[in-house]
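=== RUN LOG ===
request id: a7f3
mode: sequence -> structure
chains: 1
length: 296
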Amino acid sequence: MKYVVVIAFLTVACGPAQKLKRPSLPSFDQEGHRGARGLAPENTIAAMYRGIDEGVTTLELDLHISRDKQVVVSHDPYFNELITTTPEGTYLTKQESRKRLLYQMNYDSISKYDVGLKLHPDFPRQQKMAAVKPLFTMLIDSAEAYSAKKGKQIWYNAEIKSKEEGDGVNHPAVPEFVELVVQTVRTKGIASRIIIQSFDARPLRYLHDHYPAMQTSYLLEAKDKGTVQDYVQNLGFKPSVLSPHYSLVTTELLKEAHALGIRVIPWTVNTLADIRRLRDMGVDGIITDYPDLFHQ
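=== RESULT ===
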């Protein structure tokens, strides 16, 4: 998983005269990575349904932008050759896949590619099924209706997948990217139940400056070796959540983050032993490809 961003609106969605009551984040946040990547095709509506079936409190997902300025749910900025079947029923080479950039395609074209019939080799338990990269609006509508039928209310943890070297090539400039995401969130009425996360500090700073009521999550790579104070200083503010690679979690990191009022939710934790160990250490939630492990 790469970038993560957390958004929650208070007065933004309602105007200055009203305050939107923000639901509390789950005391221990069980997040399904890309929905339930280990069990269903990643970042698809089916994966979100599976995550809800497994009792997740939050659906984690990734966002990109199409050429016609629609917010698309996808981890990669292109069609990954490991999971893609073309509209012609063929597979892509790695070189070919890098040329199928979502930001260079209208969503009508994107929706013709399948990302569920070719199973990811790293996830043997994944269910094979026809699936497409959905629009963020479609995913929200589907997940809200499905969770309501189950008598549940879910959160979203949506990652803005931006990098400086990708500006104008893999995605629009950060302000436009963020505004398109915010517009979708506000239109769909989930502003009080979403966190916007990212490895890229720029969208998080933009959110903090323009939408200070939104909740944000700063993602950390396994190679990051700073202190919590270093990360806060780099951002210029305290994020709602710090989301490190699980190998970075120590008692010292947890103590420092909690002292600043920052929750710690590591990624991507895929063994029962690690889930139990981290929970015992005091993390505030866990992101996993296998949300069925939460029941064990």
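=== NOTES ===
Residues 1-20 have pLDDT under 50 and may be disordered.
Strands lie at 29-32, 58-65, 71-73, 155-160, 194-198, 215-220, 241-244, 263-264, 285-288.
=== END ===
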